[in-house]
Amino acid sequence: MATMISDECINCGVCEPECPNEAITEGDEIFQIDPARCTECVGFADSEQCAAVCPVDACIPDTDNVETEADLFERAKSIHPDKADEMVLSEETSRFRKDDA
């Protein structure tokens, strides 16, 4: 599922540069995540990087956008065609592959 930013956001902006897909933008009052660009960092990291740096835990699962690892990985490859051949799924690049997932 895509990640979303809740109303708890304090508009600090630390999440924006962490997104490998440039899915995070500044909204009128809080930052926003474009679900069409969010891959939950699958293909890049073992956790959602925006959530990892958020000081108020405002980056949360968007239950209206539930997706599989395969769907998220395909999106990541389509967003980054120049890196697609090098991208792999592993414990380091997908939260779905972690032992505690």
Condensed summary:
By secondary structure, the protein is of the alpha+beta class. It has helices at residues 49-53, 69-79; strands spanning 3-5, 24-26, 31-33, 59-61.
Description:
The chain has one domain: Alpha-Beta Plaits, CATH 3.30.70.20. A hairpin with a 4-residue loop joins β2 and β3 (31-33). It is α+β, with helices and mostly antiparallel strands. The protein is 16% helix and 12% strand.
Task: Looking at this protein, list some descriptive labels.
101 residues, alpha+beta, Alpha-Beta Plaits, two-stranded antiparallel ribbon, 2 helices, 12% strand, globular
What topology does this entry show?
Elements: E1 3-5, E2 24-26, E3 31-33, H1 49-53, E4 59-61, H2 69-79
Antiparallel strand pairs: 1-4, 2-3
